[in-house]
């Protein structure tokens, strides 16, 4: 069963479209990464999933309940951590968690136990009696994650849980999320850096300008991106021989020759190999005495986006 | 069952707010500064009143107590108006600004729980400030002059105002989402409530050349003003003269001066604060319902039928409370002593000019309220009937005043001297300016002396209350005596008589009533009152 499913999810802010026609499927128990550049609509999507924002159009189904109708019941099943937040001043760490446990109506012996367990899970036991405002950024982030776990929800919606953390805190957060995944929870988290999610998530969705570009298992998407690679090769003579040589290569799919009035020929090649395979291909052509005038890769939109995300250049 | 349980448990917001409210120095500094300022004001006032009392016999101990009480009440009003918006205007917008609000909305905590938690925690702080001033209020009891009932009324008004302004602050906080704007807006609205009604009435008074009858029709303008509200509560509790002479005007008691605003004998205008309480309770309820909508994260105006039912129930409840309050007090205002059976003899009588109790003390004002009452037949003048009958009736009234209604509680009065005034008190049975009032004739006097001879007191006849000897300085009646005056005898169709009787022991202390007399075993006896007694 799918933990989260959206159909035609769309949200306008005035005339701007923040999210358009989003069809998202998150299987139960998966660690799902929502990835896209800033302003792509990640936060808007997560807020709609958390029931904090009303979709302009479309429907959200979580664990078989539509958010629209069963929102009151769904709040018991969803834990939400916003991307940016401040903490209450003049409140102790344990009181902070105690407050949210009270919000979920957890009676006292159990409440104390929950608070202690969460402090242990988040490695915050030493800070139990510290004021919340004295915590470091990483500790606050963990405390905020703890607050979303107070009622042991099935679905966790985490907006940029690792943003603003130093490398060490980032590793700790990753370990925590992995632990939560092992506990069988469905976790949806967002980030603008793919490498951050790649190590953690089993499936991802790439979102840009409010559109879901693609989504699915991480491996599938990786493949999809590489499969989509297309080479443009211009040869000065003997395009036929070049085409034969190309077809001999195992990574090459279809080869479409374009010829014009002049002697130059252009070949469009579907290619599924990686960069070194491409280098090998060029070498083989040259060895066959094919005079290559140009050898370039055509960048598809998805690929370009993926590359930027992978390198973490989007900021 | 689950719903009931969640109603009974402690509100999480309340727990959180109370835990963090008193941490840090701010709360203590506010409390200390408030108390020091109030104590300073009270101390200065006591010194001033004591200094004045050396030069004026009018400043008696109860007067000091009443003035202190009025000033304290207004100081607390200022406190409520100044602190409540400041405390509540940031309650919801603060959470929004800190981005903690989304986390709160994602929990199953209902908007009404959030609202109640915020309201009660803010009010608990304001009530702390109010109740911290209670030791100051106890100073009032050192001087006396204020009834517990009046204190409770003032407290009720302040609590209702605090709740209303708290709700207003929360509403604006939720509406604007920014603490700065919400705070400014709250103060602007509170200031508008405080002063615009007064300015409006002032403008009407100037433009319409201050015609009292016309002003009475504009009285409703004062309803939203907390100043008028408090004035109308305090007015009966304080004396006249000086600054407190302004209270009737601010409080909308223009009908008090019958010369400018003659009123019907069958109804007295209600004090303004009765209307104000309903106004503020209604305002609070409406703001509460609106704010719970504003607090919804999404689907704000999609109402569920339970919510509509609850809102309707609350409005009906307010209506019921209002109706109950009206019915239980209407016989004191709108339906003053309605005649049991309309009789053809009924005459609408208008109140004459103030002339009631010619002693020249503030008590006079009190009497003018009381004779508002319908007599169903023309009165009997003392010289029209046989002296034995008139003497018997007045003797019964004098006995009642001497033995029961002497205003000294359960103590035995033991007045060694009783001054009976021959001049009758004016009452609605006489046309205004009809000439000199009748007096008790000597045959009647003789009859009364004979009937009252068993009382352990000397009886003197005086032409009017002014000619009674007084103690130097205090204004007490000489020799610890009391002055008794009578009104006309009104036969009431059904065989009973009604007579006004008053007793006065000093410039300040006295009492009176409209007595109902019936024949018991052939003799006239006081069997009841019309319920409109006054005690000073």
What would the average pLDDT of chain B be, to the nearest integer?
A: 78
> What pattern of helices and strands is seen along the backbone of chain B?
HHHHHHHHHHHHHHHHHEHEEEEEE
Straight-line distance between termini of chain A = 35 Å
If classified by CATH, what would the architecture of the largest domain in chain A be?
3-Layer(aba) Sandwich
Q: What is the H/E order of chain A?
A: EEEEHEEHEHHHEHEHEEHEHEEHEH
Strand order within the widest beta sheet of chain A: 7-8-9-4-10-11
Please state the CA-atom Rg of chain A, rounded to the nearest Å.
25 Å
- The share of residues in extended strands of chain B comes to 5-15%
Show the helix and strand layout.
The complex is a heterodimer of chains A (315) and B (536).
Chain A: E1 2-13, E2 16-22, E3 25-27, E4 31-35, H1 42-49, E5 57-62, E6 65-66, H2 67-74, E7 78-81, H3 93-103, H4 108-121, H5 137-149, E8 155-158, H6 167-182, E9 186-191, H7 194-198, E10 203-208, E11 211-217, H8 218-227, E12 230-235, H9 239-247, E13 252-259, E14 265-271, H10 275-287, E15 292-298, H11 301-311
Parallel strand pairs in A: 4-9, 4-10, 7-8, 8-9
Antiparallel strand pairs in A: 1-2, 1-3, 1-5, 5-6, 10-11, 12-14, 12-15, 13-14
Helix pairs in contact in A: 3-4
Chain B: H1 2-8, H2 12-21, H3 26-53, H4 61-88, H5 93-97, H6 101-105, H7 111-132, H8 134-143, H9 148-176, H10 179-207, H11 212-217, H12 226-234, H13 247-250, H14 272-294, H15 305-329, H16 363-369, H17 387-403, E1 417-421, H18 442-451, E2 458-462, E3 482-492, E4 496-504, E5 510-520, E6 523-529, E7 534-535
Parallel strand pairs in B: 1-2, 1-3
Antiparallel strand pairs in B: 3-4, 4-5, 5-6, 5-7
Helix pairs in contact in B: 2-7, 3-4, 4-7, 4-8, 4-9, 4-10, 4-12, 7-9, 9-10, 9-12, 9-14, 12-14, 14-15, 17-18
